[in-house]
Every structure is written in C-alpha cells, then in structure tokens.
Amino acid sequence: MWISYVFRLFVVTVLAFGFFSMVGTNEARAVDATSCTDTSGYSYTACAGSNAAKPGATVIGAVTANAAVSQTVGLISARVSQFSRVAKAPGGRVVAAKGGPLVALGTGTAAGGGDNKVGIWANGSWTRVVGSKTAAKFDGSIWTAMIGADYMFDKNFIGGLALGYENAEYDTSFNNGNTDSTGYTVAPYFIAHINDTFSVDFNVGYSRVDYDLDRIDPIGNFNKITGGTDSNRWFGALNLNGDWEFDSLALGANIGTLYAREDRDAFTESDTTTIDSDNIDVGRINAGFRLGYLIENVVEPYISALVEYDYANEKSAYDDRVGVVLGAGFNVFAGEHFSANIEGTATEARSGLAIYSANATVRIEF
C-alpha cells in the first residue's frame, strides 16, 4: 500500500514541477496564444513556429520595402515634376491667365527664352509606419535624404539624376526585436511636356539596402538572436500629369504606376538558424488630384488626395490593396531662381496600417 502512496506522490510532484516550470513559481500568468506571449512578457515553446521565431525582415519586409519605395519614388516624381512644370514659377499662372507668356522653370522668363537650364535640389523626409495586426505588430520610422540635379535640354524635356540615403528603424514587438536598415539610391529621371497642360515624368532607380536584425528567442533561454543581410532593390515609376490654371487657382491631376522588386540575400542568425533568400514585389497604380491657390505670386498652399491600388503585394503581412493618401502643404517662390516646398501626408483605408509623412524640398535654378 505504501508503494501506491509513494507512486501517487511522485506523480503529483512531477505534475506540479512541470506546471510551475511553465508558469513560474511567483505568479500565475495568462497566455495570449495570438501574440505568443503571456501577460508578463514570457514566451512559450508553442510559439516556435509563429512570427515570434522569425527575424523581422521576413515578416514585415514587404510592407517596409513598400513604404521605402513609395517615399523614394514620391520624392523624385512629385517633388521634381512639381518644380519643373510649365507655369509653376512666381506669377506664371497669373501672367498666363492675362494672355502673357508662360514662365518656365522658375526663371522669370518666357518658356524657352531663358538661360536658366540647370536645376539642383535637396529633400529631407520622415515617415512613420505603424502596424497593429496582432501577429505582426511593429512601429518605426524611415528617414530619407535626397539630392538631385537636372538639365533642361529644351523647353519640353528635362533629364536629371537623384542620389539618396535612407535609414529605417523598426521595433518589431511580434518577436521582441528590431529591424534596422540603411540604404543608398541612385535614380535617373526624365520629365517631358506634351503641351502647356500635360506632362509625363519617368524615373528608374537602384537601392542597395543593408539590414541589421535582432529578436528574442521564444524558446530556450530567451537569448537575443542577431543577424544581418543585404538586398538589391530595383524600381521604376511612370506618371501622366495635367495642370490647369484659373487666375490664382491651380488644379492638378495625375495617374501613374510604380513597380519595385527587392531581392534579399540568404543569411544565418547567431543561433545558426538559416534564413533562405527571398524576393519582394511591389506593384501599384495610383490616381490623384491637387488644388492650390497662389497668394501674392509667392506662396501657394494646397491640398491633395491620391488613391492607390496595389496589384502586387502578395507577401505583405498587411495585404489591403487600396489606400488613400491625403496631403496638405505649400510652395514658396522667392525670386527668379529659388523655390521651396513643405508637405505632410497621411495614408488612410489600409486595415491595421498607419503611415504618416513630412518632407521639405528646396530647389535652385541657374
């Protein structure tokens, strides 16, 4: 009989030991199976196959690459074309509305009649991206700096080259880690005026991006696991733009497409986990409008809206295909050679994803 009691005591002891080994001896913890953590931040073996056991770039790489490409292409397409379209210089629309010659490229001279054919510009921008889906939560920012120079070959055609630097830092709460990246971009661009109303801008580019990753091991001793990889990103964008002037009121519209591909190299994490190479495709069609009002031929406040449709985003953890980007800003035209722009935007209608941006650009022509 005593053997039976010893056996029962042994079983109870083993069960108790297993229970307290799992939940701890200080307190009972409730497990959130969807986030792979308990209320005290501990992770469990059951999460080994979840996003908690994956480096950040493999989970949110598509959405962060999408945001980075959108920012880079947007700076080139919107900013450069905005400052180089016919009748965007101080007083250009007012003079044209009164029957005078159009002013081109901020020169203060009639289109095709000035000597100012070279333009240089610089831009700085910040974008915050927040993802709130339970299994892929993250929060981070992208900082981008770009410089560019272009030449007006004739009154209807401009070609230039842009160079860029980007730095992104994301807190990836789904794996208690971080995803940081640094990238360098080179992108030629072209702008062609079809007539006084319509223009086309086109740019292609290449970015080399380096990733530094870390996460907390959801099993074992909860150690920090680190890793790093590189990627090659290629992109291109084409836009058709229309501009109409009514005295001091300006209406703009555009429709275009963007495509990018990022190829990420395979790498091995510090715990010897091998991560295969991967590629990300981003494809988008967009259409929008812009409404501005020129004040004293110097300041032009405006509002804008852009509808986006992603025709390629299959690998994104945030796979809503439609987004709406709302923006507001103002242009400043100072003298014949200098112009500047400040703008803020917010992306709406993408479930679980919030994107906010602010940027400033200056342009000088000579």
Summary of the model, kept short:
By secondary structure, the protein is of the alpha+beta class. Helices cover 16% and strands 54% of the residues. The chain is built from 3 helices and 16 strands.
Helices and strands, with pairings:
Elements: H1 2-23, E1 31-32, E2 37-38, H2 56-84, H3 92-97, E3 118-131, E4 138-154, E5 157-172, E6 177-193, E7 198-216, E8 224-246, E9 249-264, E10 267-268, E11 274-275, E12 278-293, E13 299-312, E14 322-334, E15 338-348, E16 353-365
Describe what you observe in this structure:
16% of the residues lie in helices and 54% in strands. With 366 residues, it is of the alpha+beta class. The strands form three sheets. The protein has a twelve-stranded antiparallel beta barrel. It has a two-stranded antiparallel ribbon with strand order 1-2. The protein has a two-stranded antiparallel ribbon with strand order 10-11.
Give the tags.
single chain, 366 residues, alpha+beta, twelve-stranded antiparallel β-barrel, two-stranded antiparallel ribbon, 54% strand, elongated, disordered N terminus
